[in-house]
Amino acid sequence: MTTISLPRRRLLQGAAAAIALPSALGALAQAPARQFRIGNQKGLLNILKGRGTLEKRLAPLGVSLKWTEFTAGPVQLEALNVGSIDFGDVGEAPPIFAQAAGAPLAYVGATVPRPQSEGVLVPKGSAIKSVAELKGKKIALNKGSNVHYFIVKLFEKHGLSYADLNLVYLPPADARAAFEKGSIDAWVIWDPFLAAAEKTLEARVLADATGVVGNRAYYFSSLDYAAKNADVVAIAIEELNKVDAWGSANRGELATELAALWGLPKPVADLTVARTAYGTTPITKAILGEQQKIADTFFDLKLIPKKINVLEAATGIA
Predict the structure, then answer these.
(1) Strand 105-111's sheet: what is its strand order?
(2) What angle (nearest 5°) sits at the alpha carbon of residue 43, between those of residues 101 and 147?
(3) What are φ and ψ of residue 259, in 5° steps?
(4) Which among 157, 282, 270, 142 is positioned nearest to 216, based on CA atoms?
(5) 213, 115 contact by CB (below 8 A)
(6) SS3 letters for 140-180?
(7) Most-buried pick from 81, 102, 195, 309 (CB within 10 A)?
């Protein structure tokens, strides 16, 4: 039996360690960096992307970004559900449907309320002068959207019920066409579609959401991503709030950027920006309480199949 003296054994161990060290370092070098996959609609996230400030903030953390543009919130939430994005922006209603469908949604940020950014439009020559006169009239809206909740609460405020609504479910482009042809009596819609109809069709705002609903926008992630990457999500919310602060102080410049982004006339963007409140905040229980009211209303109207607890779609809230 061959024995190895202590010095020789140590020499071999040292040699083995020397061989193993580059391999270990190589493995570390090849370890995947964290990814932050953002799904965005045409809005402030696009402006944040153009600034490049989020990339600079996240680079020292070893986080790489991937941006994907979507046409609407529900499509973004579908992408979240299948695991293809980690973060996105959406209105009040789509997250309710996503959570009811079992999506692993987490609310991670919210804008300040923006009640003037949605409203009920009637044609410029319409004889309708009050909300009460909408009873039984054909009203177009996007089913299950933020304006769906708005019209329900607006009718309640004016002593009307859901049974008094004669709703025609149309996406914005189809609703505008119907509005122009006069085949509907009113259209419930949000900016910039709202502003575009005012500016280009001389449509009249019968009522906006002031004193009725808050109309916040939300930023979302998945429960798993938000829990494991709280630092990344917090930085994204901080950077979005900086864009909000800049936009609030530089509305003319913001409108110019948004007009180009949306492909709409500058006056439309000017009107949209002028009545938008800017500011982004982390999620609180009070904010989610607002979402719970929407969820309960949609359940009562049988728009979602089951009652949901909105607080289950949150991590680390205040």
Answers:
(1) 63-69, 34-40, 87-90, 218-222, 105-111, 280-281
(2) 50
(3) -60, -45
(4) 282
(5) yes
(6) EECCCCHHHHHHHHHHHHCCCCHHHCEEEECCHHHHHHHHH
(7) 195
Assess contact for 297 and 152: CB atoms under 8 A: yes
pTM attached to this predicted model: 0.84
- Scan for tokens 């299950």, then name that residue: 144
Q: Can you tell me which residue has the tokens 């926008």?
A: 217
Residue 302 identity: K
pLDDT, one tens digit for every residue, the chain (318 residues)? 444 444 444 444 444 444 444 444 444 444 458 999 999 988 999 999 999 999 999 999 999 999 999 887 888 889 999 999 999 999 999 999 999 999 999 999 999 999 999 999 999 999 999 999 999 999 999 988 889 999 999 999 999 999 999 999 999 999 999 999 999 999 999 999 999 999 999 999 999 999 999 999 999 999 999 999 999 999 999 999 999 999 999 999 999 999 999 999 999 999 999 999 999 999 999 999 999 999 999 999 898 999 999 999 988 776
34-114+216-313 and 118-208 share one fold: yes
> For domain 34-114+216-313, which CATH number applies: 3.30.70.660, 1.10.540.10, 3.40.190.10, 3.20.20.190?
3.40.190.10
Q: How many residues does the chain have?
A: 318
DSSP per-residue string spanning 87-105: EEEE-SSHHHHHHHTT--E
CATH number of 118-208: 3.40.190.10
Structure tokens at 218: 């939300």
Whether residue 91 contacts residue 190, with contact meaning beta carbons closer than 8 Å, is answered with yes
Beta strands in the chain, from DSSP E residues, in sequence order: 34-40, 63-69, 87-90, 105-111, 118-122, 138-141, 166-169, 186-190, 204-208, 218-222, 280-281
